[in-house]
Amino acid sequence: MSLSVSGSSSVEELFRSHASILRDPLAKDEAKLKSAQELSERLEDHPDVFVKESLGVLLGLLRDGSPHFIAEYNVQQVRKTALECLQRLPAESLKPHFKSVLSLMFKLLESENEENVLVILRIIIELHKQFRPMHSLEITQFLQLVKSIYKELPNHLPKIFEPRDPIKVKDLGELNIEALLGETFTVTTITTEKKAPDGASHVSYNLIPKAVLSLKVLQELPIIVVLMYQLYKQFVHQEVAEFIPLIMNTITLQPSLQVRNHRKFNKEVFVDFMGAQIKTLSFLAYIIRIYLKVVSSHSGQMVEGMLSLLAICPHEVAHLRKELLIAARHILATDLRTKFVPHMEKLFDENILLGRGWTTHESLRPLAYSTLADLVHHVRQHILLSDLSRAVQLFSLNVHDESSPPPFKPCPASSSSTSWSAFGAGATRSKVGETGGSYL
User: Fold this and answer.
1) What pTM was estimated for this model as a whole?
2) Per residue in 35-75, pLDDT tens?
3) How many other β-carbons are positioned within 10 Å of the β-carbon of residue 178?
């Protein structure tokens, strides 16, 4: 329904009023937050009015204000609300301003906190999908930033998994927040001695890591690099190739067994870290055929990394192992599958392939064993008799396992048949080899 002239005027006046509060340097942060929330609530009903009266103010607030890293502070919530408004704006309303918005988003990446950058990344993705801007220096700088994050990750590994006591202080002002941010990689709770309004608990705050150190942000970066490659492949082909050694280093990183067994080992941080590694492996799976020669020169690290991820992936987190198996399936579908032949014994180990969790064992068997079956089929002329024997035994056990889901049944059966054929071929090779002949 269209607004009357007076109605339209009153809406504009309302937006203008809230924008003036956000612009006012003397206004309290609480008042600014209320105004930002009011604008957010009315944005979808009046997007064009929002753009006319409020967009410039919000962009100025984000551009000129400083990032904050305590989630509960009003000033942080204002910045996050402003970014969420930008994310929700319809493409048509934002179209005349998308270049300035996109430019600001790229600038904020390096300085903002994790919470805000997760929104910024979604804005960057959507603006590129909607408007497909031309390649620019900002794209190059973004890829350089992502590379620098990957390069620094091994240096941060000891701090990421360093056993830590909960942070408890008398008052938040006692902390050197800037120093603490230098070794914070995931949202960290800080408990103070101040009593909460209920009187039964203490006031606590959540310290948000810098985006460039955030494990959650690291999980989201590969998909944007893929998008940049899709849009600008003729410009970024070499730059993306430079990611491959960094990917290999990333997927081989892991905390030592001693660290993992420590009573203060933070499993949530470990899950975030592995999530970032698996997303990185998925990135490799996407580009592997394009850069097959480059990847081949790092194949040893690739095999080591993938097997390591399978071995230590937490059994409680089924979705991570599923994503890992999907990435592995894509990698094993290339000619580099032969690089895994010396490690077949590990792949036939259910504790490595599926983990020890009940959920992963029950839900991921079809994916895991069909992937393994395809691998066995394609490398059957190269694997040892002992590995072929394991294949036959493993698939035979699963064919006769009544708990296997129905769609799973045909896969091992056909693969077992393949394995039997390969087993016979392997036996022939062995006999010919013993008599000094050659196998054709």
Assistant:
1) 0.87
2) 999 999 999 999 999 999 999 999 999 999 999 999 999 99
3) 9
